[in-house]
Specification:
The complex is a heterodimer of chains A (108) and B (211). Chain A is α+β, with helices and mostly antiparallel strands and 108 residues long. Chain A has one domain: Orthogonal Bundle (Arc Repressor Mutant, subunit A). Chain A is built from six helices and three strands, in the order H-H-H-E-H-H-E-E-H. Chain B is an all-alpha fold. Chain B has one domain. In chain B, helix 8 (163-174) packs across helix 9. The chains are: A alpha+beta (108), B mainly alpha (211).
């Protein structure tokens, strides 16, 4: 019986969204989940990531369709506005659900 | 589900980061200082009440301008822009409703005061400025602090509310209008100083090179 239970947990582990599971991306997506939108500078300040690092993670999240990136020119400077897409919101909720299933069951 | 990723805590931390620049502290200190200089209205050759009103109006307008421009040209370029979610929007609506209610209440109390109701109650002495300060200043500001989740404002609310009481204590020693100037002015300057400390720390943390 116990072995079936462990197999189930391992099965859920394999289903964890690896794109979101990476710590820096998890931080970015968690922040975007609790707000409506923010610019690049704000996310950078909150996460403590470098410009290059943040850009790289954002590109991956944008490619997956989790984050929408809107570029505009404000006071002759590029302004990058970031927002969690509907798909990103659902994926993050699904990720949290899976994580709760795994971590919740290991509490016993 | 929040036990593994504390989203509420994350949102609160993000919201409270808006107060780390010290601009809100300077703004409130500036407003409090306005009350300290208001009694000097007659120095412009205007009737005392009108002069005081003009001083407070100009002073407060400058404070609001400082808050808006400070956030726009100092905080946002360094810290970035963020728009919070539906929960905060709801909170903003409640705050607006509260502020409108507060203005109506202040006018109501003013009319009640003119009608001589408070005198008829015969509270008198030092209790009157204490009660007025706490009801008209400390309570509304504390509610504002609750809505804004700006915890330092609770302390400012208490000190500012006690200002009228302190001015009554100072009156026999320094007379009017120095009593109000010293009691409210010292609170205003202390709050501005706290704000400046936060402001300098903010500028150091978010230097212009980080822009």
């Amino acid at each position: 019986m116990k072995s079936d239970e462990s197999e189930g947990k391992i099965q859920i582990l394999t289903e964890i969204n690896k794109l979101i599971h990476e710590p820096a991306r998890l931080m970015i997506i968690s922040l975007l989940y609790v707000i409506e939108n923010a610019d690049f500078v704000w996310i950078k300040g909150q996460t403590g990531l470098t410009d290059g690092n943040l850009s790289s993670h954002l590109s991956k999240l944008e490619s997956a369709g989790y984050v929408t990136v809107e570029k505009s020119i404000k006071n002759k400077k590029t302004n990058t506005l970031l927002k969690l897409s509907e798909g990103g919101r659902k994926a993050f909720e699904e990720y949290r659900k899976k994580l709760t299933q795994i971590l919740g069951s290991t509490d016993n | 589900m929040n036990e593994h990723i504390d989203l509420k805590g994350l949102e609160k931390k993000a919201w409270r980061s808006a107060f780390q620049d010290g601009i809100w502290d300077i703004y409130f200190g500036w407003l409090f200082l306005g009350l300290a200089i208001a009694p000097f209205g007659d120095t412009f050759g205007l009737p005392a009440e009108l002069g005081s009103m003009i001083i407070v109006l100009c002073w407060n307008s400058m404070a609001v301008l400082f808050l808006i421009l400070g956030k726009k040209f100092i905080t946002i370029p360094r810290m970035g822009f963020v728009k919070f979610g539906a929960k905060r929007k709801k909170m903003k609506k409640r705050l607006l409703a509260f502020l409108i209610f507060n203005v109506i209440l202040a006018f109501l109390l003013l009319f009640i005061n003119i009608s001589g109701f408070f005198k008829a109650l015969n509270i008198g002495g030092l209790t009157e400025p204490l009660v007025i300060g706490l009801i008209l200043i400390t309570v509304p500001l504390s509610i504002l602090a609750y809505f804004l989740e700006f915890h330092r404002l609770y302390v400012y609310a208490i000190f500012f509310g006690l200002g009228f009481f302190n001015s009554e204590l100072l009156y026999p020693l320094v007379g009017s209008p120095l009593d109000l100037f010293l009691s409210q002015g010292s609170v205003g300057i202390a709050i501005i100083s706290i704000g400046l400390v936060y402001f300098v720390q903010f500028l150091r943390k978010y230097s212009s090179s980080q822009k």
